[in-house]
Amino acid sequence: MAHALGQHKYDISFVPKESTDHTISVRFNNEPVPGYFQHQARLSIQYSNRTDITGSPFISRLATSTLQVTASGPGLERVPIEEPVEIWVNIASDQPASGPPEVIVTDSKGTRLNVEVTPQSNERFMAVYIPRSVGNHHVDISYGGDPIHGTACLIERIF
C-alpha cells in the first residue's frame, strides 16, 4: 500500500503472508528505482526504524520470535474513580523476558497517571492505576519498546 506524503515522498507498507525473508524492490511508474537515479538524487529507505538501507532492491528479514502479549482486566473497562484498578498483561514468548511491559494511562485532560507494574510470574504482570477524574482515559501498552497491537484503547470512566 502506498500513501503520498507530499514533496515526492511516499509511505509504503505491506503485510507479509509467509514467515520468510522478502526481497523488496521499489518501482515508480513500473520502472525500477535503484539507490541512485536521475540527477544523483538518493533513494533513502527507512525500514523498521533503520536508516542504513540506501537502495532497492533490499531484503526484509522477518523475526521468528513467537511473542504474544495480551491484556485483560477491569482496568480496561468502565470503572469508578478514586479506586485502584488492575490490568493483567500476559507474555508468551520463546525468548527470555526482556523486563516488564510499559503501561501508560492518560486521563481526559492529558495527564499521565501513575501506573505500578509488578511481576506476578515470568510471564504475567499486574498494572495498577487509580483514575482520578471522570472522562475517557487512554491506555497504551508496550513491551520491549514496541507497542502491543490492539492494546491502545480508550476507556470510558462514568462513575
Description:
The protein has 159 residues and is mainly beta. It has two domains: 2-60, no CATH class; 68-155, Immunoglobulin-like (Sandwich), CATH 2.60.40.10. It has no helices and 18 strands. The strands form seven sheets. A four-stranded antiparallel beta sheet has the order 11-12-15-14, with no helix packed on it. Strands 13, 16, 17 and 18 form a four-stranded antiparallel beta sheet that branches. Residues 36-47 have low confidence and may be disordered.
Strand-helix topology:
Layout: E1 2-6, E2 9-12, E3 22-24, E4 27-28, E5 31-32, E6 36-37, E7 41-42, E8 45-47, E9 50-53, E10 58-60, E11 68-72, E12 85-92, E13 102-106, E14 115-119, E15 124-129, E16 137-143, E17 146-147, E18 153-155
Antiparallel strand pairs: 1-2, 3-10, 4-5, 6-7, 8-9, 11-12, 12-15, 13-16, 14-15, 16-17, 16-18
Number of strands: 18
DSSP strand (E) fraction?
35-45%
Q: What name does the CATH topology of the largest domain carry? A: Immunoglobulin-like
How many helix segments?
A: 0
The side-by-side strand order for the widest beta sheet comes to 11-12-15-14
| Count of structural domains | 2
Largest sheet: 4 strands, antiparallel
Oligomer: single chain
Q: What is the arithmetic mean of pLDDT? A: 75
Poorly predicted ranges: 36-47
Rg over alpha carbons:
21 Å
The helix content is under 10%
Q: Class of the largest domain in CATH? A: Mainly Beta
